Amino acid sequence: MNITALIEKEIAKTKELIIEYKEFTKPIAPENAIGRISRMDAINNKTINEAALRKSETKLKNLEIALKNVDDPSFGKCAKCGGEIPLQRIMLVPQSRFCVNCAR
After folding, report:
1. Beta bridge partners of 84
2. Dihedral of alpha carbons 7, 10, 16, 17, sign
3. Domain residues for 48?
4. What is the CATH number of the domain that holds 92?
5. What is the pLDDT of residues 26-77, one digit of tens each?
6. Residues 39, 32: contact at Cβ < 8 Å?
7. What are the DSSP calls for 59-102, one per residue?
8. What total of structural domains would you count in the chain?
């Protein structure tokens, strides 16, 4: 599988996750009689899902940038040190702009 196809596949998967997270982060109606403890759990879960939603939206933005830049000669080069980003890293994290050392 080439890098473009991998990025497109990851974009589709991330968009599906965003839809799920948006469903999980809908407001919790106060009139729902789910009990105080259950309501607190629901609010806590909503907060966790909101953080996951923000992370997924950031990932989607980075993937879309990577897809636009895949044909650029600088694609696959570290934005910090200019060295080559290993192909394995690009395949695992296609939105990454840094090599492993610079990402630390």
Report:
1. 77
2. negative
3. 3-103
4. 1.20.120.910
5. 887 766 556 666 777 888 888 999 999 999 999 999 889 888 988 998 889 9
6. yes
7. HHHHHHHHHHHTTSTTTTB-TTT-PBPPHHHHHH-TT--S-HHH
8. 1
